From TrEMBL, chains A, B:
Obligatory cofactor(s): Mg(2+)
Pfam families membership: polyprenyl_synt
Protein's organism: Hymenobacter properus
Molecular-function GO terms, alphabetical: metal ion binding; prenyltransferase activity
Record-linked PANTHER family: GERANYLGERANYL PYROPHOSPHATE SYNTHASE, SHORT CHAIN ISOPRENYL DIPHOSPHATE SYNTHASE
Family stated for the protein in its record: Belongs to the FPP/GGPP synthase family.
Gene Ontology biological-process entries: isoprenoid biosynthetic process
Name under which the protein is recorded: Polyprenyl synthetase family protein
Entry keyword annotation includes Glycoprotein: no
Lineage: Bacteria, Pseudomonadati, Bacteroidota, Cytophagia, Cytophagales
Annotated InterPro entries: Isoprenoid_synthase_dom_sf, Polyprenyl_synt, Polyprenyl_synt_CS
Length: 323, 323
């Protein structure tokens, strides 16, 4: 297995996972959401993290899949909590079946994620499961903060960054740390890779916020301006609110948290303020800062430079994506 | 720590568990449901299972608590799925907070349950977590079958017994197996204890079905006849439907699955058929049969007889309870 083969190997291994058979109402939704596809970035990060240190990836693939099953568990429960009708263009599990099926199928997915770690060498298992559990709890904390923020009148930029760190970034960091630990890397290298992944995750999520406003409608895949329409407290909105003049505050207040008469007008008005305040370049600067921090951590990892190229390349891809 | 101290030790240790702090909306519900009390039978079974083989229970208490946290996780999510307003006479988490908080707090409880196992000696950990994970998935399967049965026209007695085995009994079996394994018992002894616990769990659940119909209203704590009123497919109803004469079938069909005009009349009519068919003594015979099977497994465990007395006594208590 070389890095070029990793995606195909992950896809093939995921397709062979057996989550259980009966009752079908419990297991069909798991096969369904896992079959919806996706970039499978998390197991890819684990494999690339391990490949920095070893060519023997025989024991890495199965725990790498655990991260993807866990990620999809969070999507399943988050979609239910957010009442999202679609996931990757298909009906969500709670829509296709019902909310109870979504709750219980998700619960089993979390159990199955843990099970996929159990072939890890016993000497490594307690540490890896402690780190996975901490990460899993943090992801839940992030989702709870995200839901809390919807109804909180004041959210600071620091609170927002901490929320996306918990909800999105720590799992990417864990995936890389996992790969490193499975490959026998030092604590120091595992920690640098964890921070590389976390920084990339933060940059990735901020890029998501940016694309929502400034993305190309043709390639973005979601409605451009969706976050603005739904009053989502993104980095862009919170930054604009923090920097707006009284006149700009008044315009924002007229649109945010108010009934939407004309969605396009709302998007245009809010974006105009972002433009006036140069929120785009500020966001890009923060993304770039996280990205540079990430690269510094990668640089410090004691592994051959050519082995770092695929990770460097993937990080760049995640930053430059248009969707 | 001797068996007489176990309940107080469990209560004290549970009170000291730290599930997490922020956000409070995520962790307060966990403290709340764990604080509602209960008999704490599951950690007690683990401690008693270990005490058969050793006096050194220092490493047993923490994983024993995992079973109680897991059990309360299932109660939290089940209450949401069943839309139950009350748990132990107090508002359920989804009522006191909201459904999303119940989903996410439950998710974190499952993570915390796994974490409580991680101090288990690494040589035992993979096997114990594999058995715990299998049990956890089975409990979810049992809950899904239970929900499926609500809308299925035909449920066999065998299907019903399998459902209560999964939903209730396997966890009690696991708790005992866990104690045995932590105390270094042989696979054979661990397996006998698992079967002892599973049989006790089946008997316990059937006793629950029986109490619903024939319990003393003063001590039962729930409305007597509640299962009949809600058309719940219990062992008693399924047995009656399987044995009823055409005339009795007609009476049952008039009451089961129909709008309830007079709840007391419904309970009286269905119970009259149970009486005619001697369903009570049939249920008691099955309970007794599971109980005898349980005792035979306990007898075969290679441990001193006097050490088995607390388990024997607890099993009797669970059978003879009036609530």
């Amino acid at each position: 297995m070389t890095p070029a083969d990793f995606p195909a190997n992950i896809t093939a291994a995921l397709a062979q996972l057996d989550y259980g058979q009966a009752p079908d109402t419990l297991y069909a939704p798991i096969r369904y959401i896992m079959g919806l596809g996706g970039k499978r970035i998390r197991p890819l990060l684990t494999l690339l993290g391990a490949h920095l240190f070893t060519d023997d990836l025989s024991g890495v693939l199965k725990p790498a899949l655990a991260t993807e099953v866990f990620h999809n568990f969070t999507l399943l429960h988050d979609d239910l909590m957010d009442q999202a009708p679609l996931r990757r263009g298909q009906a969500t599990v709670h829509e296709k079946w019902n909310p109870n099926v979504a709750i219980l199928s998700g619960d089993v997915m979390l159990v199955r994620a843990y099970e996929l770690f159990l072939d890890v060498p016993p000497a490594l298992l307690p540490r890896i499961l402690a780190r996975f559990s901490q990460t899993a709890a943090e992801v839940c904390e992030g989702q709870q903060w995200d839901m809390n923020f919807e109804t909180e009148p004041q959210v600071s930029i620091a609170q927002y960054l901490d929320m996306i760190r918990l909800k999105t970034a720590v799992l990417l960091g864990f995936c890389l740390e996992l790969g490193a630990r499975l490959a026998g890397a030092s604590d120091e290298d595992a920690e640098h890779l964890r921070q590389f992944g976390t920084d990339i995750g933060l940059a990735f999520q901020l890029r998501d916020d940016l694309l929502d406003v400034y993305g190309d409608a043709a390639t973005f895949g979601k409605r451009v301006g969706g976050d603005i329409i739904s009053d989502k407290k993104t980095f862009l909105l919170l930054s604009a609110q923090a920097q707006a003049s009284p006149a700009q505050q008044a315009i924002l207040a007229r649109h945010i948290g108010q009934p939407v008469a004309d969605a396009d007008a709302k998007v245009q008005a809010v974006r105009a303020i972002y433009d006036e305040l140069e929120i785009r370049s500020q966001t890009e600067a923060l993304i770039n800062s996280y990205f540079q921090d990430a690269l510094q951590h990668l640089e410090r990892v004691a592994a051959p430079n050519e082995r770092k190229q695929p990770l460097h390349h993937l990080a760049l891809q995640l930053m430059d994506r248009e969707s």
